[in-house]
Amino acid sequence: MTFGSTNDIPSVGRVLAVDWGEARIGLAISDETQLIATPLTTLTRRVGKRLPMHEFLTVVESHLPVGLVVGLPFNDDGEEGETAGLARAMGEAFAAKAGLPLAWVDESFSTTETLERLTARGIAPRRRKEMIDAMAAAVVLERWLATRIPL
Q1: pTM of the prediction?
Q2: What percent of the chain has pLDDT over 70?
Q3: Is residue 78 classed exposed, middle or buried when 0-12, 13-18 and 19+ CB atoms within 10 A define those classes?
Q4: DSSP state of 29
Q5: Is residue 71 classed exposed, middle or buried when 0-12, 13-18 and 19+ CB atoms within 10 A define those classes?
Q6: What whole-number distance in Å separates Cα of residue 7 and Cα of residue 148?
Q7: What is d(CA 31, CA 55) in angstroms, rounded to the nearest whole number?
Q8: What is the pLDDT of residues 62-112, one digit of tens each?
Q9: Which of 110, 44, 29 is nearest to 71 (CA)?
Q10: Domains of the chain (ranges plus CATH)?
Q11: How many CA atoms lie within 13 A of 97 on its CB side?
């Protein structure tokens, strides 16, 4: 499910995706044609501290995205809870600082899907931790990209 200003993101150019977490924020990037999502990196912060804005803006400067997609976590009842509010605040702050149009995507079970993919690829459990957040952001981006494919 996609929410927000999806149509404001140009149909050509790299799109940056964010998977919010209290301690780790996964980032993924699309290719210029917006067909392929690639895990990029994970930003870290101490719980309760400021967002890693400088690190985020460094990624933006390096990859020059044309839009930002943020995954929204929902409660079991399908409603936005406290975590979704925190993800929204982060997404809005990142988009405003970077000057990027913003879209929202339902990120439900993106981490579970990522763990299944890593297990299927035979990635050792200790290596999964360093990969999971960026890969979850790639799952979020894949979901958004799928909404952009013309029928």
Answers
A1: 0.85
A2: 86
A3: exposed
A4: E
A5: buried
A6: 9
A7: 21
A8: 999 999 999 998 777 777 777 888 899 999 999 999 999 999 998 876 677
A9: 110
A10: 2-148 (3.30.420.140)
A11: 17
